[in-house]
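Lab notebook, bench 4. Still working through the backlog of constructs that have no structural model yet. Next entry is a single chain of 87 residues. Request: give me the structure tokens for it.
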Amino acid sequence: MLTYNECLEMSGLTVGEVNAIAEHEHVDPIIAMAMGNYLVEHQGEQRIKKIILDDIAKAERNNDEAHAHLLRRVMEHFIATHPDSGL
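Model written out:
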């Protein structure tokens, strides 16, 4: 059986990216990891970028600057590691 960390390593995503997808889609992280992996493998980087941007906007609306800051860092890393996602 694969561990969570082994699945994460194979997904091509970080914990922060997986958590952003889970938050946005209201699913468990392991499901979000599978969704994110599918998107990465099928040119869905723009969708992941939109998910993270939506999460940032929600955090800002809720005046949760610490979470918004964390998500901005997740976005920076995602763009750096997935250049096809665009700016």
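Notes after review: The chain has one domain: 4-85. Residues 1 and 7 are 10 Å apart (CA to CA). Flag for follow-up if needed.
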